[in-house]
């Protein structure tokens, strides 16, 4: 198996990429790699001070856009500003996320993990899609997690976990939703033939995302981390390959090639059987449009 690295990223000059959660971790490494290849990069972040600090570290044509994925008002405001700044976009990388947080809600009353990881990115993608449609080679890459295989299905009877909250269950539901969304989006984009939707997961990467793990899990992870984890830079490679590899196809899911997909070379991997369930994809799409009040310009 040939190794794929950032050296394989084609020249990105003239291309514009919007990356959520790009001031740290996977998003930062993704932004840096694209900027190094000549892309115009927008760091879409909640904390603009940290965003500007990250932009300064990256260098190149990198700017900051305020975006709070826990607020539909902020998402709409960010979309309006990006519409003013750019006539078209080439890459939208839905990278930001939260993991195993204590029970909390977004500003719109959604369970925090489902609201941030799925509904926030669903709304942002729908509002920006007109800037990506009919752009040759445009891609929307949504970062999921191999953890989506660990939980049950989408809890349509209690999407917001109001009856009995389970922080890992809520996380895995949100990551399954990322994949269901990607596959349904790709099916809707396919007839137009220009813009593609793909997904990726970073394996087990050492990032701030782990900060909300229960203490006993965190201690156990620290013991095995050298064997089963990789750096944020390596964890960003599946996203970067999905975003830039000329051979990547809409509907593909990229992740590490190693044992249990913990780490390794970025390759096409399979997601869970239920992530490919067409009825589940369509039902989640409908519910997501109803909750966010964002209707996509593709049907």
From TrEMBL:
It comes from the Bacteria. GO terms for molecular function: oxidoreductase activity. Keywords: Oxidoreductase. InterPro entries: NAD(P)-bd_dom_sf, SDR_fam. The keyword Oxidoreductase applies. The keyword Oxidoreductase applies. Belongs to the short-chain dehydrogenases/reductases (SDR) family. This is Short-chain dehydrogenase. It comes from Mycolicibacterium poriferae.
